[in-house]
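Human: Note token order:
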Amino acid sequence: MYSLDQTPKGDEAAAKGIAEPMNYVLKPQREGGGSNMYFDEVRKKLIELQDSDERSAYTMQERIFPLVTTNYLVCSGKLDDMKPEGVVNEMGIYGAFVRTHDEVILNSVPGYYMRAKPVDMGEGGLLMGYAACASPWLHQ
């Protein structure tokens, strides 16, 4: 994770993102999904914010390049144009933590979700129709 504040280290990180935008994800410091920037959007936004203090409202993360598999995706109930395509899978783990000032009441992992999305898709939201629910298949 790279800070993009207006310091020499922030300038160095921004220069990396401009030079190799395919290797990074630009994330605004706010809640909710769908606002991350991928691919050439990273370069354009970093150039736009180059001399602005607004740049510190973002962080930059190295992209993870997961294994690509071939699968069928059914998104938004569209069965007509279903065809095999390259997909990547993502797993999210839910955590629950509740405490009072001096006592931990709950600290657990109540579940997980998996989704599959096209290999060339940056965002992966299920509700936005970018991805489909997936299930793990464990094998040796």
Summary: Strands lie at 2-3, 24-28, 58-62, 69-71, 85-99, 104-118, 132-133. The longest helix spans residues 8-19. Residues 99 and 105 are 5 Å apart (CA to CA). The chain has a mean pLDDT of 87.
